[in-house]
Amino acid sequence: MMQTKQNLLGNWPGNGEKLLLGMIHLKGNEIDDIYSRAVRECDIYARGGFDGVIVENYFGTIDDVRYCLPRLQDKFPQLYVGVDVIWDNDKSFDLAVEHQLPFIELDSLAGQLPPQEEPQFEERIRWCQENSPAVILGGVRLKNQPVLSGNPLEVDLMLAKKRGDGVIVTGVDTGVETELSKIIQFREIIGDFPLLVGAGVNEKNCTEQLTIADGAIIGSSLKQGGNAKGDLEMDRVERLVTAVRALRGKVK
Fold first, then answer.
1. pLDDT score recorded for residue 3
2. CA distances (Å), origin 169, targets 29, 74, 83, 192, 233
3. Which family does it belong to (predicted)?
């Protein structure tokens, strides 16, 4: 699979498939342990039927991200390998350009930045778009972070549509189920624009949630105990993918 923007946008969501991106949280005691765990998780996601993974410094550091990201990209060409440097958009943009990533996840596309910082943010988005193939996926009202824009939800969602390629909706925290009412609200406002659920998707709620949304970013619910600190489990991945793939062609 060539990791290009054309492929990702060309194959999703128009063909009826639901995009599945798995989280690589970079848990481990030192870099060899962190990387070997990341390899194992990528292998499970790939064999289980996920489309891609997001390398994130949830447990690790930016140095761990820099080490693992290009190695995973080379080792798993069948996966879209993207990045999310938590609350450091500039580093995500830089890595997208440096490694010509197929996509990045931003914690916020609109809403969480004060107005005075937004012109520079938009300039960086344009720089990333002009110098990489990266699809830009980003949150609005992500995990109940403070809203600093001063805008109503409708305005921030319209800004997000102009800035990026897909909107991420979440609930209150990592691994916590996103309220169905919030997913429906986002869908009603953004129309057919790509929408991903970014927290709390599992095999029990995926049918209901992904009949509305176009895909999901999933990590914690697929791990032992349904916790981000646990080990990724192949049977959880397979059961979820089976349920999601049955949704092909379902109307929103």
1. 46
2. 31, 30, 17, 15, 25
3. Belongs to the BtpA family.
> pLDDT tens for residues 25-68?
999 999 999 999 999 999 999 999 999 999 999 999 999 999 99
CA distances from 7 to 3, 120, 134 (A): 7, 29, 11
Tell me if 151 sits within 8 A of 111, measured CB to CB.
yes
Residue-wise DSSP of 37-80: HHHHHHHHHHHHT-SEEEEE-SSS-HHHHHHHHHHHHHH-TTSE
pLDDT at 172 exceeding the cut of 50: yes
CA–CA distance, 231 with 233 (Å, rounded to integer): 6
110: three-class secondary structure by DSSP: strand
Mean pLDDT value across residues 228-243: 95
Does residue 197 contact residue 210 with C-beta atoms inside 8 Å?
yes
The tokens of 140 are what?
């609005």
Helices of type H across the chain: 5-11, 31-48, 62-75, 89-99, 118-131, 153-163, 180-190, 206-210, 234-245
Six token digits for residue 68: 């693992």
Q: How far apart are CA 251 and CA 202, in angstroms?
A: 20
Question: φ and ψ at 104, to 5 degrees?
Answer: -135, 155
What are the structural domains of the chain? Answer: 19-244 (3.20.20.70)
What are 124's two structure tokens?
Answer: 């960086």
Residue 178, Cβ neighbours under 10 Å: how many?
23
Structure tokens, 32: 């060899």
